[in-house]
């Protein structure tokens, strides 16, 4: 498959603080990449960096973001305006970051269509109506005349997804768009997104802290900790045989993996603030496998079957023991 997006050693800083530190990944046509990590790991900042929607003083301080070979890290703001919403789109956690509360849905969607296409209002409205229907909103013609507050939270998120899909973008970045929804609505939206991505061959970066979502949605997983990707590979190998102790801890802390009546497993300690990132491996303060070298030296890349981890002492032996048992 053709590579659509190639992120190489991306660094994003807020003043002297580096929130994203040498992050690299690629995205192929029609592929879904799950970007996973705790709050504060840098996954959302990575997404905002790719589409260049960083609030000041945030800025890209290093690396490249190659979109069809075009480096977005050095692209002009005018060039980015032509790409955003057209070739690259974003779905936010809060749909009201996309929707204007005082405008009808049709006004907002027609404007979004005509921002990138030279079409009349009638044609733009037809495209908007079809987009609402495609994401499962009933009576789309009638709902175009509604205001955002007249929709439920799940329906508002469907509208935001419809807007992101208006121009059949090559890449969609979804920043935890189902986090605030109940599990039933979440499952419906995930099913719709999977169907639409498959039908349109759209590449998707799904940012989440929920491993169960990634397990059923993503082709590949990148696990972030303290601004770095610490493990990266195809979904099944990463989730079935995690190499990095942090990934192993995340999987172990999923409630369904704990026996009834027992205390939930958890990773000890808390994520350290990125402005106080320790030397060596950033996870060593919480890692039971850490040794002296982990506290002083940057971890090497440990290679497994088609996936990698930044770790001196990967979980390969522990993973084999689990399989044997």
From TrEMBL:
Residues 5-251 form the ABC transporter domain. Keywords: ATP-binding, Cell membrane, Membrane, Nucleotide-binding, Transport. Pfam families: ABC_tran, oligo_HPY. One of its GO terms (biological process) is peptide transport. PROSITE patterns: ABC_TRANSPORTER_1, ABC_TRANSPORTER_2. InterPro entries: AAA+_ATPase, ABC_Ni/Peptide_Import, ABC_transporter-like_ATP-bd, ABC_transporter-like_CS, Oligopep_ABC_C, P-loop_NTPase. GO terms for cellular component: plasma membrane. PANTHER family: DIPEPTIDE TRANSPORT ATP-BINDING PROTEIN DPPD, OLIGOPEPTIDE TRANSPORT ATP-BINDING PROTEIN APPD. This is Methionine ABC transporter ATP-binding protein. It comes from Pseudorhizobium pelagicum.
